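S.,

As promised, the tryptophan run. Input:
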Amino acid sequence: MEQTVRKQRILSGIQPSGTPTLGNYIGAMRNWKLLEDEYDCLYMIADLHAITVRQEPAKLRQQSIQLLALLLAIGLDPEKNVLFFQSHVPQHAQMNWLLNCYTYMGEMSRMTQFKDKSAKHADNINCGLFTYPVLMAGDILLYQANLVPVGVDQTQHLEICRDIAARVNGLYSGVFTIPEGYYPKVGARVMSLQEPTRKMSKSDADDSFISILDGPDTVRRKIRRAVTDSDGEIRFDPENKPGVSNLLSILSALTGETIDSLAESFADKGYGDLKSAVTDATIETLVPIQTSFNQYMADKAYLESVYRTGAERASRIAERTLAKLMKKIGFIAK
Ligand code: TRP
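Predicted complex:
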């Protein structure tokens, strides 16, 4: 007897604010390709989230379409994965309103990201910034996602999503699947090239991160300038030698060699040798992605067909959940 087992569903969102970094690629994006057969995956470009801080329209447009092309360029198959823009699926905004009414001011004001971002953008502490985790909760719950791949900076948001889901289920029973975090087994945390005790971030100074779209010369320059230390010894010791350790873990992530064996083979070499190995491995990884990215960017009609289909598929799933919750709340069905 044939039996179809429903695959577990994965949803993740990525903001179109700047180009993803080598750190985003190593820590998150490249793992997505490995999930596409085993799971039912949706990847959303979180453009609604992006406007919680001011965006320049032309830049937002450019970065959004580039991000879609990048998802394709890293190899995601748009048939197996649902790729879509959050703003194309109106159920996100609708769900956001509903969930706002089941979320407390107190829990939102405890969010560390809200505190950080409102300190950073003191001239624009808008309500969207405050309720951002509610929008994100809706993103996840609309699709009844089982698993959500997120970085550590998002675990608090995932927790609040679970709290909101449990609260709604407590009131109306059986509305939402309670999601869990998905943390890839392998995946190094890539640190800043300039301040290697901090995570590599696209919002830091330009020389401190490598963007997936950085060309070979830029990669060479940035890695040459990466901060190391003065003892000249190559070994893995993140606490005392964060710069060198970061270079070793990037090299390990890109080549698949263990950190131990790399440390051994570089033991009697200099920092220059290590940097040039990291440079070569980075360029070798990025060039094929960039070539593919350029091909997708040159084919606007194809990109359009991908995001239109993605939005239709996403919307069908989202509508089911939204209608179910609206009925339970007591709205008159359309
Ligand atoms: N808030 C996430 C970030 O900034 C992006 C995001 C939006 C997201 N909606 C999501 C991530 C849903 C996972 C699931 O990185």
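Residues 142 and 320 are 8 Å apart (CA to CA). The longest helix spans residues 300-329.

- D.
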